[in-house]
Design goal:
binds beta-D-galactopyranose; six-stranded antiparallel beta sheet; alpha/beta; eight-stranded parallel beta sheet; globular
Length: about 425
């Protein structure tokens, strides 16, 4: 199957509308059935079911793409690992350090050669980096794609899947982002399934545990079947841009934070331990300085809101910024352990929209300890007074709840029936509610 470069395949407005309609239809299922059972899939994969048993909570870590694009090298990766150990990110749960596109030696088609790393960028080789990561209590990820070339034009894995899977394993790799770019828009479900099956199968057959990210733009409703083919996460749309709420999609292709949030609305049923909807890597702290992503950057509050949303959506938390030089606010955002706990909860539930009207958007989900999480998001440009009611909005038969604000790190008291708070533009107040007598 020939591959087209991702960014050439633009998402047309009519396709976008169609998908929004599809998502709205899906969102009619009840919360609990969404949370616990995957709906009946009429399009059962044409291949045997695979499951690697990994990533029981959403993978957390860093990926090179959003900040650096293909400008990556050994020094950057070593310094990134060191920084994450020193600044507390590793201990907060960010253990993956993932090389994205650009580590490979050769551009263009494969020409029967083993995949090789760029020896100028990585003089000691990839296994050296994996060993360095492991020595530091972290993991190393790598990138390839099911085409003759990857999205950035490097040699791809098509036709060499087993050879490459075995080589990644021999390098002690822990995570593979396998990226079909946004090609295959017009391909049949079976064709796309075959693409991921061919890599998933040899990865699973190899004794080394390797988490699989089936990266794709959501074509053929990948969330319906990728988990059954051994993928641990799959992108639900095109690339994120470094914007919180850019008018329309940048270049008709990029999704800002609110676009991505809306894209995933209704996909809750497909999220579960080991199988995650992927809302794309974090843009927190990029501040418009990315070498690769388009976008003007966002404010500290907007980045914090983006982080809160990704956390409660139980999507992978792969930060894309340069962690060697984080300012205090950004580090506090990324290492808020009370927010991270929402993402890493063992139930693995993706928060769903419980109330939406005007600029007010409330998302919520239950946690494994019986508490609930609520994000009160103000999508507009003026401050809003937002209230959440235990019974009417959350369906909770609680008279009183004790309310904790997870950004203030403060117990706000015990409230009967509801809680009300002022939320500034583009902020999300995140609460954890506990039933109380
Ligand atoms: C894109 C993908 C990005 C990045 C890039 C590398 O298709 O969405 O996240 O991996 O390819 O070329």
């Amino acid at each position: 199957m020939s591959k087209l470069l991702g960014k050439q395949m633009k998402f047309t407005i009519s396709q976008h509308l169609f998908r929004i309609l599809a998502v709205l239809l899906l969102s009619t299922a009840s919360f609990f059935s969404q949370a616990q059972d995957t709906p009946k899939n009429e399009n059962i994969p044409a291949f045997e079911k695979l499951n690697n048993g990994l990533a029981k909570t959403p993978p957390m870590g860093w990926s090179s793409w959003n900040q650096f694009g293909v400008e990556i090298n050994e020094k950057l990766i070593i310094e990134t690992i060191d920084a994450m150990v020193q600044n507390g990110m590793r201990d907060a749960g960010y253990v993956y350090v993932n090389l994205d596109d650009g580590w490979q030696a050769d551009k263009g088609e494969r020409q029967n050669k083993p995949l090789d790393y760029d020896r100028e960028k990585f003089p000691k080789g990839i296994k050296y980096l994996a060993d360095y990561a492991h020595k530091n209590g972290m993991k190393l990820g790598i990138y390839s794609g099911p085409g003759e070339t990857t999205c950035a034009g490097y040699a791809g894995s098509q036709g060499y899947e087993k050879q490459d899977a075995d080589m990644f394993a021999s390098w002690n790799i822990d995570h593979l982002k396998y990226d079909a770019c946004c090609s295959h828009e017009k391909a049949s479900k079976v064709e796309v399934q075959e693409v991921f099956y061919k890599m998933s199968k040899p990865l699973i057959e190899n004794p080394k545990d390797i988490v699989l990210h089936a990266c794709h733009c959501g074509w053929t409703d990948i969330w319906e079947w990728a988990g059954d083919l051994g993928a641990n996460h799959w992108r639900i749309g095109q690339d994120i841009s470094d914007d919180f709420d850019y008018p329309k999609n940048r270049e008709g292709y990029y999704f800002d934070v609110l676009d991505m949030l809306d894209r995933g609305d209704g996909l809750e049923a497909y999220n579960k331990p080991g199988q995650w909807n992927d809302f794309d890597m974090l843009i927190v702290g990029l501040n418009g300085q990315s070498k690769e992503l388009v976008g003007a950057g966002a404010s500290n509050i907007e980045y914090r809101t983006h982080f809160s949303l990704w956390a409660i959506l139980s999507t992978p938390l792969l930060t894309g910024t340069d962690v060697r030089s984080l300012d205090g606010f950004t580090l506090d955002t990324l290492t808020n352990t009370e927010i991270i706990a929402l993402n890493q909860d063992s139930l693995g539930i993706q928060a769903k929209t419980v109330k939406r009207g005007g600029n007010i958007h409330i998302l919520a989900k239950p946690m494994s300890d019986g508490s609930w999480v609520v994000a009160m998001l103000n999508r507009g440009s003026e401050t809003e007074l937002i209230s959440v009611r235990w019974l009417n909005d959350l369906g909770l038969d609680w008279n009183k709840a004790s309310v904790r604000d997870l950004w203030k790190h403060k117990d706000m008291g015990i409230y009967e029936e509801q809680y009300q708070v002022e939320v500034i533009s583009h902020q999300a107040v995140v609460l954890r509610l506990y039933p109380t007598k």
